[in-house]
Design goal:
With 428 residues, the protein is of the alpha/beta class. It is built from twelve helices and 18 strands. The strands form five sheets. The chain has a five-stranded parallel β-sheet with strand order 2-1-3-4-5, sandwiched between helices. A five-stranded mixed barrel has the order 14-15-16-18-17. Strands 6-9-10 form a three-stranded parallel β-sheet.
Length: 428
């Protein structure tokens, strides 16, 4: 694939928001080398998958996608199938032997992909019409959670230079992006490897001062609980352009389970952090995620978590069932929680959160908020947006009734309807 000029390329990006950023940088590099990007895989000369290998469900999705594209490849004489990303980093040899239809396997650590993951690379190709974009501030992770394979796949923390982040932010804002969402495997550690004191807070100060961000939103995701400082909370709670939103994955609440997970925080630490956030951001939103069915999790320990969720009244919660990942510390534990029990616990926790979410949404009825108009839903002929307390893709949405605003506008709305997760609103 040395001659890329005039080659038509179709890309499928799987997995997390951080992977999507990588995909957009790949597209920029290939476009610069003469490639034409196509949304139609059946007219492509090259079919490229940016894979995810984080948990079992993600691996299955990656394999299914590769096999689906391999079928299309058969109808395109001379077409090539390439796979890159996390799955290749973990299972390159297995993919090579099990799926011979793959022509190119590009691991994260390969020399051929260095340009994509270079910390000062700022060129990207975003999807047409998007008004919100993820901005990756670091790569890799220095935490030692026993269930997580990310450090093995992505390596240790590698913070991007602040000047590169600011430059990329300016480029995104210049093309009409209205919301920047800062992401990393652990945003709280940003700058630690660069020997920066209060690295994240200093970066947020720089971004806050950008005149291009006036009237737009800046959201921070993936904050590791033990490392959240009062200065971080104060900065996010300081008002525009920051959205009043804290994303902090607690993973569990029982001390014994947290210890087996390799987490640094305890039940008391979590309660203390919640109090600090709520005191600084009484009208803000807190999002978290939990893992149920971790090896050794008893019914009593799960009920401890369930009781906490009911008392904490989170705005948004994600619940995952534990899956053993080879190479992690937890892989050595006997996975003694049956799958059916894991699924039952997941359903119980989500049922409790569902009721909380519905109650919180009803409390918004009749109140006025700022909303970002995100897209037009052609099927239902409606505009869809979000409040500042709703992050893209992972939280509920705002259905805009009788609204003539354009995607990208930030408008005042009054909440007129409340569902389990979504809201209905009318422009003021």
């Amino acid at each position: 694939m040395k001659n890329l000029r005039n080659m038509r390329l179709h890309m499928v990006s799987l997995g997390c928001a951080k992977n999507r950023v990588d995909s957009e940088k790949v597209l920029a590099i290939l476009q610069q080398q003469g490639c034409t990007i196509t949304d139609n895989p059946e007219e492509a000369d090259c079919l490229l998958v940016n894979s995810c290998g984080f948990i079992d469900a993600a691996k299955r999705e990656t394999i299914d996608t590769i096999l689906s594209l391999a079928e299309i490849k058969k109808t395109r004489p001379g077409a090539k199938l390439a796979v890159m990303g996390c799955m290749v980093e973990r299972y390159k040899a297995e993919l090579q032997s099990d799926i011979p239809e793959i022509d190119y396997l590009l691991a994260i650590s390969d020399e051929s992909t260095k340009e994509v993951y270079r910390t000062d690379n700022i060129s990207r190709v975003t999807q047409p019409g998007v008004v919100s974009a993820y901005l990756k501030i670091a790569e890799g992770c220095g935490n030692a959670c026993s269930f997580c394979s990310i450090p093995a796949i992505r390596g240790p923390l590698k913070s991007r230079p602040p000047e590169a982040i600011v430059a990329e932010a300016k480029e995104l804002l210049a093309i009409g992006i209205r919301e920047l969402v800062l992401v990393a495997q652990d945003t709280t550690r940003y700058g630690a490897d660069l020997k920066k004191k209060n690295g994240l807070v200093e970066l947020l100060k720089e971004l806050k001062n950008l005149k291009e961000l006036q009237g737009r939103w800046l959201r921070v995701m993936y904050l590791y609980p033990t490392l959240i400082t009062d200065a971080m909370i104060d900065m996010i709670a300081s008002g525009p352009p920051f959205t009043p939103y804290i994303d902090v994955p607690f993973q569990h609440f029982d001390d014994a389970v947290l210890k087996r997970m390799g987490r640094q925080e305890t039940q008391k630490d979590i309660q203390s952090l919640m109090e600090r956030i709520r005191a600084k951001m009484p009208h803000g939103a807190i999002r978290t995620s939990f893992i149920v069915g971790f090896p050794g999790e008893t019914e009593k320990q799960f009920n401890h978590l369930l009781k906490f969720v009911k008392e904490a009244q989170f705005d948004h919660v994600g619940v995952f069932t534990y899956s053993s990942e080879e190479g992690t510390g937890a892989a050595a534990y006997a996975d003694d929680v049956p799958e059916k029990v894991k699924e039952k616990r997941q359903a119980q926790l989500m049922k409790a959160q569902n009721a909380i979410s519905k109650k919180k949404n009803k409390e918004k009825l009749g109140k006025t908020f700022d909303a970002l108009v995100e897209r037009y839903d052609n099927e239902n002929r409606l505009l869809i947006g979000r409040l500042a307390t709703q992050a893209p893709e992972v939280d509920g949405e705002l259905i805009l009734d009788d609204c003539e605003a354009a995607p990208g506008e930030i408008i005042k709305v009054t909440i007129t309807g409340a569902m389990d997760y979504d809201l209905i609103a009318h422009p003021v």
